[in-house]
């Protein structure tokens, strides 16, 4: 399907926007379990927005149209807390080129919390914080503050933890096999858990081996790698 990447991108962005619009007017009752379900749903959609920006960086959202691919990547990066798409792109390509080295902007030889802090500081800028603050104060004029915090801010923060833990920390921490040029490990074959955890980016070795594959093709790549290892 020629436009499958575009279909997934539009679907994720639309679901994120529609869900957020609905939840910003949703009556919050912390005894209502649906509130927590919606927080997790919004977190997952936020992660999908970032994954779409990531795939655009690799040119696979709309490979038939470079300008459209860039526009979608720029939009998704902006929606994800005003991230700078050009900066994300430059640093992500450095990550692939220099994975698990001093030149890797995503790598840190330390514990989870220090690594996460280093990871955040690598990308967060003063202008992002300023734009988020302005947006929050403008939205507060229209929507309840509690809803903005619960359904807009908290899911965004949780999404950064989700992306970092499953997409950076678990795949790249610790020692790697000497013959592993990608210095990336994958979670066990389980497509449901791989999708729920981080849009199949737990299959991280496959992503580094085949960076031209969009997120929705990583499951197939993992299956092929498993079959190859069994045959050997």
Return the structural class.
mainly alpha
The total beta strand count reads 0
Succession of helices and strands: HHHHHHHHHH
Distance between the termini: 32 Å
As a whole number of angstroms, the C-alpha radius of gyration is 18 Å
Oligomer: single chain
In round numbers, the mean pLDDT is: 95
Shape: globular
Task: Give a short account of the largest sheet.
Answer: none
Helix content: 55-70%
**How many H/I helical runs?**
10
Low-confidence stretches: none
Beta strand %: under 5%
Description:
- With 232 residues, this protein is an all-alpha fold.
- It is 66% helix and 0% strand.
- Helix 2 (33-57) crosses helix 7.
- The relative contact order is 0.12.
- The mean pLDDT is 95.
Helix and strand topology:
Layout lengths: L3 H20 L9 H25 L8 H14 L5 H13 L14 H12 L2 H14 L5 H28 L18 H8 L5 H6 L8 H14 L1
